[in-house]
Design a protein that fits this description.
This is Terminase small subunit. By secondary structure, the chain is mainly alpha-helical. It has eight helices and no strands.
Length: 161
């Protein structure tokens, strides 16, 4: 009996996280009470997982590029430095980032490089959904089979990283 509950819990998690349906809909599809589904959702952090899958690589890259752009705009719009008499001081040049800005820019750039190479779980799920949709147009039975394998793959990735 415990194995069946575990399978129901796993199936419910997949439905909630991947298909983005309500807890009530999950409860109906898995044939478990909505209260139990809510408990599992809270205990296992399904909402956090759901959000992490929404954060695709492209969204993260856009976020990091926007941060770099904001820092560069702050640097470009930095006011001139004036001496006691109100004259512009030529050093340091106003377009050079401070140590703190340079450090942040370096870290953001490293994050961008990492994301451009790394494929996250959200990106894998999005690609899998597109592939399943493509297969459905050709052969529905094959699409169902592939979806089952794909769900197993995602479960394995989430367990083992």
């Amino acid at each position: 009996m415990a194995a069946k509950k575990h399978e129901q819990r796993e199936h419910a998690r997949l439905l909630y996280v991947n298909e983005r349906i309500t807890l009530k809909e999950v409860a109906e599809r898995v044939n478990v009470s909505e209260k139990t589904i809510g408990k599992w959702c809270k205990e296992d952090g399904w909402d956090k997982l759901r959000k992490s899958l929404l954060t695709t690589r492209d969204a993260q890259l856009t976020h990091w590029y926007n941060q770099l752009e904001a820092i560069n705009m702050d640097i470009a719009e930095r006011p001139d430095i004036l001496d006691d008499k109100g004259k512009k001081i030529k050093r340091p040049p106003k377009l050079i980032p401070t140590n703190s800005e340079a450090d942040i820019m370096s870290k953001v750039t490293a994050n961008i490089k990492s994301l451009e190479v790394e494929i996250g779980l959200g990106e894998i799920v999005e690609t899998g959904k597109k592939l399943i949709t493509f297969i459905q147009k050709i052969n529905l039975d094959d699409a169902k089979l592939f979806k089952n394998y794909f769900d197993e793959y995602i479960n394995e990735r989430m367990k083992n990283g």
